[in-house]
């Protein structure tokens, strides 16, 4: 019996038996910029890769796809056609952008189970059917209402305007956004179209009219009590990032209208014609007082009276009926309900259930049995992790939970089946990733570099490691690539460091060194035969501590913490190797050196190093998969066993076959001279 037989195993976090990981849906009107990759796709991919290692590849579906519909796509297509820069249909336009997005994701080693789109491939076919079923179930539950609402119409162009063809200022109290569209601003606030401040048409530049149209709306205000309870559950959950319930709470306040103090007399004159409200006087230093109403309908009636009287005001964040359909031609067809036909589904609601469509498509691609998607979305032992930027928390954190709750009493696709309600998802919301110190977006003055442009200056491994280390789970962080944010003088000055390369140095120096050292030592001293020995207690203790911390950090989706841990652990592994091999060489140089004792010590140092290299490579696999898999390839272990958490992690013998354990060695491949598992970018070698 070895000392390891009595070693305590490390504590492991509880994980679901199956999991879905989502990564949002980029609009099909442009290539992916660095924010898509850094803020959503790379974190989601690292987490999905970890889950595959942790609970098994068959038990994980990592899904996303191009958002094929929505007003940004219509507007982008219109402009390019008008400028003569695109020929073909809008479907051709979306497909061209989809293919560019897919190629970029592959370049960044993003390992999606499916990447098609809401109107592309098998996933698109599934999505049309699912959208029809979802809306019909909402209607059957009595939570869809037909409403005649006002929509912007450009009389000069003789057309209704889609959401992105109207520009103005956000009407939500406290919001400073000058990039507000028909019913949402670029900071994620939603409002009634008629509340938009200073609207203008992007088609003609004129002031649009408001004309009535009929559409279907989800009764979101009816779910306020549920959402209050949901917010309380999230606040009590230590695994939920604080920003999620905070964003949810912002929309659960009473319906409020804010009126400037200078307009108090005019408001008082209208008071008797308004629905009942409570007036909250302006606090010291505040410029507006509040009129608080009992319901959103009463607030809206008051808004109409005040607008008709010419009284200026702003509305507060509140739950408002959520539009499900629209009347633009390019969209998922909506079902005909109560004789209302010819509508399409607004892109935001259908994007909330699109991950289910993509999961169904991924299960179909895996050859799963029909209905297997329910094991991922409905089973109590499963979990759905939705990675997103904080700007989308209104839709995923407020609307989506209410939509899922509305369908709790049935089965989504089979009304005759026993109820299998959709489980509420775990939202993994990241803060903004800034370019330097400024928020960058394609609609702002600061244009972000595309993800492809970054690859002209950095390797994929350098970027993945840096993006995960940024700490977007904690705060908005500046991404400061030297070629894009430094001055001309700084770019040409080698003394000015590039912050993006900090984590890259961990790869090219420390991680590289321990992998190469082990393989070169195996060639030099053991003819590429790895002795199958138990590692020392100290090496096991260090590895178990790292495994336990890593598992806990992933459980909390603290990817920044994972990178800090791996920086420390890789340096610990490297130091253990350096100290150990120095001791071996010193003993070998001694005048009374015992060749057998030297070889035994050399074998033990190597056993410790290769064992800890295995653990290091398993833990770095989600971060830098290509280089990690190359290490496994040269060590000649089965990747399915090597990249699995189904071990006691006591000895490298757990990776060996019985005949290898019996004979006492495992063959590895010879590493070529001056080989790098992680290389610097060519531009950094000049």
Describe, in short, the structure shown.
The protein is an alpha/beta fold. Helix 16 (501-526) runs parallel beside helix 18 (559-589) and helix 18 packs antiparallel against helix 19.
Task: Please bin the fraction of helical residues.
Answer: 40-55%
Average per-residue pLDDT, rounded, comes to 93
Strand order of the largest sheet: 3-2-1-17-18
The number of strands is 22
In whole angstroms, the N-to-C terminal distance is 55 Å
Structural class: alpha/beta
Can you tell me the residue ranges where pLDDT is under 50 for at least 5 consecutive residues?
Answer: 1-7
- Helix count equals 22
Biggest β-sheet description: 5 strands, parallel
Radius of gyration: 29 Å
The share of residues in extended strands comes to 5-15%
Shape: elongated
